Structures are given as C-alpha cells and as structure tokens.
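Exercise: predict the fold of this chain.
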Amino acid sequence: MYKRQADPRWELLVCTCTAPDGSTSLAGYATCFAFYQFPCSVRFRLSQLLVLPPFQRQGLGSMVLTAFRERAVELDARDSGVEDPTAALQRLRELLDAKAVAADGAFAAAAAAAVAAAARVRGEQDPRALGPGPALADRARRVHKLNPLQFAKVWEWVLAFEVERFKASGSPKALERAAAEHGLEALVKGRIGARFEDKKTPVKCMHELKGRDFFLWRRSNAHQSNIQIEMELDEAAEEKREELMLDLVDQRVAELAEGARLSLIHISEPTRLGMSSYAVF
C-alpha cells in the first residue's frame, strides 16, 4: 500500500465478515485519498481495492464501492473517481452508479422521455437528443459525485435499462423499438466519436487495449530515423480510424444491451454464507 500514515487525506474502508460463532475476519479493504479541490472542496479517489480470495464472488466489491460513493457524499466532495480501474471494476462501478442514478426521479423521468422521443424518430438519430443536458450533468456531480466522463457512461446504462423497459412494455411497434435502440447507438457513437476528432491520422495509429480507454500513438520523427515507424497512407489511416471507432461502438452497444437484458442492473448482493454478516466501515 502506498499510504503515508501521518497523512490525514488517506482513508481506509475495511470490509469484515462476522461468523455465527461471533468471530470476525477481514474480508477486504479499499484505500481512498482526498485530493484538494480549490477553493474548499476535495476530489475523492479510490486508490486500491482488494477482496480476499475466500470472500470473492459474493458481492463484497459492490459493498465497498457503494461505501466509497457514500463517503464521497458525506465529504461533499467535488466528485469521486477510481485510479486506473480494471475493465471489470469499471463496468461494476458503472452499474452501481447507474443503479443509484436510475433511482433518482429526475434522471428516471428524463430517461423515459428521451427514449420515448427517440422511438418516434424516423431516419437518422441526433445523439444530442438523448443527451442528459447540463442540468442533469450538474445534478450528477452535486448529488451523486460523478465526474462528467463517468456520468456520460452511466447515462448510457440508464438509457439502456429504459430501452429494455420500453421494449418489454408490449405497446411499442417493431419500428419504434428499433428507433429507440438506434437512438442509444447514436448517443454511444457520439461519445466515442468525440475521442477521434481532430486526430491527424497519417502519423498516428489508434489501438485499444482490452476494452480500456488506452491508445498508443505512433509518431514519425525526422530526427530519430533509427526508430521503426509504421506509416499509413491518408486513405488507409482514415479507414482504419472509422473501422476502429465503429468496432468500439458495436462493443459498447452490445455490452449495454446484454447488461440491460440480464436483469436491469444485475448486481449480486452480499451472500450470507453460513449466516455470516458483512460490514464496511
């Protein structure tokens, strides 16, 4: 652990398991750091999270992440974040945040209205039409402590759940169901496509690493001729960029659809194995 004991900005969330005989065991922990935010606030960051092997796959990671978000609210932090999360942790965090946001009436009403409006569109969808708007983005930061990037992804989940509800309601026609799905796809494409804007493709190649937001830029340099540089023609580079963007969009849309279909926020609750109880403090 990279933690300075004398630094009060560090906080430790501890997850314990109490067995029927009254004995208590350490089940996991998380370290958090409160970065100073001018003029009088903090940005709360989760630095490390560990659930010990005997207690994994029982929903404890969800408990710790929930406690982390609640602590950010208690501190009235500017926002909360996770340092260098794995793809699995990022997905779990998005789902948990989506569960909290979807339970907020303001977001639920906006999502329902956005999906209903998208279902009435015929032809190309405007990604801005399904966007949350500045008022909801501000509420997401103030109430749920979500930074803009995290909220953009969480909003996609909230809309995906609403699309599934809309489709399952039985009333919409096939054309309306398809239009609602295309609206969500347009929103995803707009967010991902923004990452590709203003990129000079002839000297850069974009790659994704295991679903993470990571890109490797290969730059040509006339002063370092000994470095091997892979160059592409303008046309080929443009096609590669478009191909990669569409692939990322397809992956994200498939992830949202699968997650929404499973159970509309399918997150395991802490299992009571052997009547044990869990607590995070």
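Check your answer against the key: The longest helix spans residues 234-263.
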